[in-house]
Amino acid sequence: MAKIVLIPSLVAAKNIDSLNQSFLDSANDYDNGMVFKAGAYDSAKQTYTPAAIGSGELHDVYMAFSPEDSIMTDEMGNQYKIGLNDPRNFTNSKGLVFSAYRPQVGDKILISADGIEGTADDYAVVAAGENKLQYASAAVSGLSYKVLDDSAYISIGGASAIGTQRVAAVLLECVAI
Description:
Layout: E1 6-10, E2 20-23, E3 35-42, E4 47-51, E5 62-64, E6 70-73, E7 79-82, E8 98-101, E9 108-112, E10 116-117, E11 123-125, E12 133-136, E13 144-156, E14 165-176
Parallel strand pairs: 10-12
Antiparallel strand pairs: 1-9, 2-8, 3-4, 3-5, 5-8, 6-7, 9-14, 11-12, 11-13, 13-14
């Protein structure tokens, strides 16, 4: 399964801190671009637990997005962040705190095609029980994105050159939350 690459091109959460939250899940990994609800809050760790999107709970959804840093841990437990050339190798690993933001109407994101399931259509929406966006013919009463460009791409750098690979992507604009 390919990893999702997310570029938040124009999102309100870049300027409004309250739209960003910290999450911690000890059982599951999350790719950037995956969607979920905020579950239980742990006041000691100041994090939420990601929760599945239930039927009728398509509002107040969060989207995972952390900088594509890989973390190495040495034998003594010290953690180091190293550079990552290919964001397709990145995931928010279980047991580590990661960031997510709450999309707002007008947000524009560029997400790799692997981040949306189904047959290409006019909208990408959240669905109950799913952690990826789903293609749909119309917006739903909940988080919905209009497909602006389904032939976009994300340039990925290699070890020796920038932009040597292209990843199929879709440009989306949030039209409902």
